[in-house]
Amino acid sequence: MYKCPWCEHKTFSFWQKQSLGPIRSIRCVNCTRRVSVDWTRAHLAALPAFLIAVAGLYSFGAAFDSQVLAILGGTAGALLGSLLTAPLYHLYVPLVRPRR
After folding, report:
1. Is 2 helix (H, G, I), strand (E, B) or coil?
2. Element (H, E) at 86
3. How far lies 9's CA from each of 22, 28, 31, 37, 53, in Å?
4. Residue 68 neighbours by CB distance under 10 Å
5. Which of 51, 65, 73, 78 could form a disulfide with 56, with the two C-beta atoms 3.0–4.6 Å apart?
6. How many CA atoms lie within 13 A of 12 on its CB side?
7. Which of 97, 74, 87 is nearest to 45 (CA)?
8. Partners of 27 in the beta sheet?
């Protein structure tokens, strides 16, 4: 469970936080204020999935000279990168008060 940055009560589950993004926010059930995640840290946490996907795309595409294998390599890279991104997002990205 994660603490609300407004009321400090642990009201957010792991999956609620995982579904948040810099644009999406949710309401705290305790204080009814909106909560989001830090924009910079959320993007940095997503970076491994993007970089590994691009590396898979180019390495398989160049190695086998096939567009189909390049797409498969990119997809496999994105899935592998997601395995790194989820725990990184959990540990590194804090819940914050939205700026709007």
Report:
1. strand
2. helix 67-92
3. 21, 9, 9, 16, 37
4. 10
5. 73
6. 29
7. 87
8. 34
Amino acid at 91: L
Count of residues in the chain: 100
CB within 8 A of 44, min separation 6: which ones?
A: 92
Residues 35-87 have pLDDT tens digits of: 999 999 999 999 999 999 999 998 888 888 888 989 999 999 999 999 999 89
Give the other-Cβ count within 10 Å of 13's Cβ: 11
What SS3 state is found at 19? coil
In this model, does residue 12 exceed pLDDT 70?
A: yes
Buried b / exposed e over 21-44, threshold 16 CB at 10 Å, is: ebeebeebeeeeeebbbeeebbee
Give the sign of the dihedral formed by CA 52, CA 55, CA 60, CA 61: positive
